[in-house]
Inverse folding.
């Protein structure tokens, strides 16, 4: 299989500096990388330069890409990021112009379908989870069988078939929203026939020489490589940063993490995580109640949460948090149509006005910050969201991780897996991310522990410890006034100053002692049929 050959060749290059091994990898994947770049830029010269940059990045990272990395998907995603770095705002304007002409009926002939698909394909793929995107690239870009796709993903052929089918439906939904209505057969046939075209003659040799020997590297190419690698670094730490900041913004509400022992069977942490991802992917619905406790910043908060999820896009998650600056309630929901959120002090929640949010991803991103992760952990796993899904880091194999001794949670035998991310080390000399409400000075270390049922592969408990994070809050007077009103305190200069001091002291204590959030899932019910009314406010 190509995946096995890829890793063997990459190891040979990394360990022996074998130009022949690297050239074999380039020859195998250069068409795909070049086609991805050309779809973005529609410029032959730019596509060739982007292709060279992608393989320069691969050469530089060859010694750090573990055996769990699916090289085909990694190269596709790197090509996409590099192309976006290259063209920035110009491609967005081009896409808007192209989308304006999409509102027409499409003929089933591939030659007529593809021009409508091509400008949107990479944005559509970017909207998928990493596992779904890998499945599509392997199946339709590389032409692999479902058995080969499953083997590459560490799953069965049947599980691979389900994942590919679900990913294609997500792509169809993306195109339909933009006026391109296609059957699954039309879409996959067009992608398979057109997504990968032959790269220009001689480009593979040029790429190999540039990546391995460093010859003919222009200033433009050097800048492109360095900028793209910085972007890739930010994508790796984005989740950890978001969770850490969310914990501090919630007034002591953090997220997942650690235990201490060693499993009896031979499953690796990524294998356990992938089995868990497959378990959630196979469910039609899920519901539970969760209890979360956050300790840090000199205060303890408790969150109770009820979750109800059903495919394809129905959800209702409601939570109450006590022990912070005030008792708060919140909810995000959708019956499969529009997405809504409402959050306020508990005594005002019933009459608070609901707000429409852009999509499910945004709804749970909002929920993450104010619930400390309690409202987003399971939805993140069920819907494979960027925000809240703690399984991705474990499945990737790219963080420091370990297994500890199995434990029982609520009478259920569980695997215990731990992931440690030193965001400052990963960030290196790059600048801190900008945030209008938080002045980040140090990202610290985030340790995440999951307790996963050994039989059903569902998350039973999670714990996150954030240590060493240094940040200064930038609350406006209006925000502080609103907080005082929710605390039922008079808005006076003395109370405003006291509240600001309380928040600053909390941040200092959080840096010194860390923030720990522990969440336990109870009353889990799966594959129950819900009605639309079950997802109303």
């Amino acid at each position: 299989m190509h995946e096995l050959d890829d890793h063997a060749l990459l190891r040979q290059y990394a360990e022996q500096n074998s130009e022949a091994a690297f050239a074999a990898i380039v020859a195998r994947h250069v068409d795909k990388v070049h086609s991805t770049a050309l779809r973005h830029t529609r410029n032959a010269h730019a596509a060739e330069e982007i292709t060279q940059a992608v393989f320069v990045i691969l050469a530089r990272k060859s010694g750090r890409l573990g055996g769990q990395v699916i090289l085909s998907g990694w190269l596709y995603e790197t090509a996409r990021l590099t192309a976006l770095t290259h063209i920035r705002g110009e491609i967005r304007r081009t896409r808007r112009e192209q989308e304006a002409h999409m509102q027409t009926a499409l003929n089933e002939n591939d030659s007529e379908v593809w021009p409508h698909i091509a400008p949107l394909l990479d944005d559509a793929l970017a909207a998928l989870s990493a596992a779904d995107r890998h499945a599509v690239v392997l199946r339709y870009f590389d032409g692999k069988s479902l058995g080969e796709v499953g083997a590459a993903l560490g799953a069965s052929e049947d599980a691979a078939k389900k994942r590919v089918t679900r990913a294609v439906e997500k792509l169809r939904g993306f195109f339909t929203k933009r006026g391109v209505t296609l059957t699954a057969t039309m879409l996959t046939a067009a992608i398979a026939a057109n997504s990968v075209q032959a790269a220009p003659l001689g480009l593979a040799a040029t790429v190999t020489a540039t990546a391995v020997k460093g010859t003919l590297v222009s200033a433009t190419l050097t800048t492109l490589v360095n900028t793209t690698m910085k972007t890739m670094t930010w994508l790796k730490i984005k989740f950890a940063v978001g969770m850490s900041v969310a914990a501090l913004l919630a007034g002591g509400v953090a997220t997942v993490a650690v235990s201490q022992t060693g499993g009896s069977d031979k499953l690796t942490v990524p294998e356990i995580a992938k089995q868990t991802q497959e378990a959630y992917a196979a469910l039609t619905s899920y519901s539970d109640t969760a209890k979360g406790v956050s300790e840090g910043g000199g205060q303890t908060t408790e969150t109770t949460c009820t979750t109800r999820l059903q495919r394809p896009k129905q959800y209702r998650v409601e939570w109450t948090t006590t022990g912070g600056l005030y008792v708060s309630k919140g909810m995000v929901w959708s019956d499969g149509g529009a997405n809504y959120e409402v959050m306020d002090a508990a005594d005002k929640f019933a009459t608070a006005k609901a707000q429409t949010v852009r999509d499910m991803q945004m709804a749970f991103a909002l929920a993450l910050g104010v619930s400390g992760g309690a409202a987003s952990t399971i939805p993140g796993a069920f819907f494979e969201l960027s925000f809240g899904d703690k399984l991705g880091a474990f499945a990737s194999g790219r963080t420091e991780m370990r297994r500890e001794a199995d434990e029982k949670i609520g009478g259920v035998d569980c695997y215990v897996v731990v992931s440690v991310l030193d965001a400052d080390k990963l960030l290196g000399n790059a600048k801190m991310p900008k945030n209008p409400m938080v002045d980040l000075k140090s990202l610290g270390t985030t340790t995440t522990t999951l307790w996963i049922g050994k039989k059903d592969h569902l998350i039973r408990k999670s714990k996150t410890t954030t240590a060493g994070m240094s940040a200064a809050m930038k609350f406006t007077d209006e925000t502080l006034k609103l907080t005082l009103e929710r605390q039922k305190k008079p808005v006076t200069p003395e109370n405003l100053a006291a509240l600001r001091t309380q928040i600053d002291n909390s941040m200092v204590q959080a840096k010194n002692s860390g923030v720990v959030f522990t969440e336990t899932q109870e009353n889990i019910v799966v594959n129950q049929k819900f009605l639309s009314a079950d997802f109303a406010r």
Observations:
- Residues 99-110, 243-264 have pLDDT under 50 and may be disordered.
- The two ends are 50 Å apart (CA to CA).
- The domain at 239-535 is CATH 2.50.20.20 (outer membrane lipoprotein receptor (LolB), chain A).
